[in-house]
Amino acid sequence: MTDQSNLDKKYFLDRYVYNCPFCNRRNVSYGIEKHYSFDWTMDKSCQIYIVFCNSCKKQSMHLSYEHIHDYDFKHRLYFKEDIDIDSKLFYSVPTSFFILDNRIPEILRELITEAEGSLKMNFLTGASACMRKTIYELLIIEKCSALNYDDKIKELKTKYKDTDHELFNILGHIKDMTSDKVHEQSWNKWDSHALKLIIETLKAVLYDIYVVPAIKAERSKAVLQLTKKVKGFK
C-alpha cells in the first residue's frame, strides 16, 4: 500500500476535508465561513479566507494572492476543485496544523509561532531573531548556568537524558550559534533550510522536556485511580 503519511503534514487535503490545527483531528470536514479581498500593493490584491472546523468550530485565517474559490449551485463557498490548496496559500494563522502544547511555556510557544509566521512570509531576519530569542529564553527557564552556549546545551543534554542526544547536538552545531554571542539581540539571519531545522528540532526538544513527562504523570494517575477502585471493590 502506498505511504500517504505526507498528507498528515498538509493543511488542506481537498475542498471538503483538512487537518484541523486546533482539535488536531485528521481528515475532518471544514467550511469557508467568510471571504474578503484587499489591495496588498498598488497592483496586487490579496484574498482572505476564514475557515472553520466542523468538529471543534474553531476558525483559522488563510491568505492567497489568487482567487482560489468558487460557489456551488446553492451559492456555498468552496475552494476550487483539482488544485493543491496549500500551494496557493502564502500565509495561514495558525501557521501550521500543529499547535504547540500549552504545557510548553507560553513565551516559547509565542516565539516559535512568530518565527513560523515570519518564515512563511520569507522574513528570514525576523524568524532568525525569534528562534535565537526562543533558545535564549529556554536556557533561562531551565536555569542553565554555564558561561557559554555550547556548555549550556551540554547542561540540557545531561539534564534530559531520555531525549535523543542528536537533537541537542543539532542545536549545538547550527551555523552561527556556537559562539558566546547567542542571545536575544543576535540578528544575523539564517537561510530557510537552517530555520526549518532549528524550528523542528526545538519543537521536538520542547515536547520531550515539557509534554512527555506530563503525559506519563497523567497516565500514572489514571492507573492509580483505577487501582483504588479495584481495591475498593474487593
Spatial strand order of the main sheet: 1-2-3-4-7
Number of domains: 2
The chain-level structural class is alpha+beta
Q: Unreliable stretches, pLDDT < 50, 5 or more residues? A: none
Mean pLDDT: 85
What would you call the shape?
A: globular
Tell me the fraction of residues in β-strands, as a range.
15-25%
From the N-terminal CA to the C-terminal CA, the straight-line distance is 49 Å
Order of helix and strand elements from N to C terminus = EEEEEEHEHHHHH
Largest sheet properties? 5 strands, antiparallel
Please bin the fraction of helical residues: 40-55%
Number of helices: 6
C-alpha-based Rg, rounded: 22 Å
> What's the β-strand tally?
7
Structure write-up:
- There is one protein chain.
- The chain folds into two domains: 87 residues; 120 residues, no CATH class.
- Helices cover 42% and strands 18% of the residues.
- The strands form two sheets. A five-stranded antiparallel sheet has the order 1-2-3-4-7, with no helix packed on it. Strands 5-6 form a two-stranded antiparallel ribbon.
- The mean pLDDT is 85.
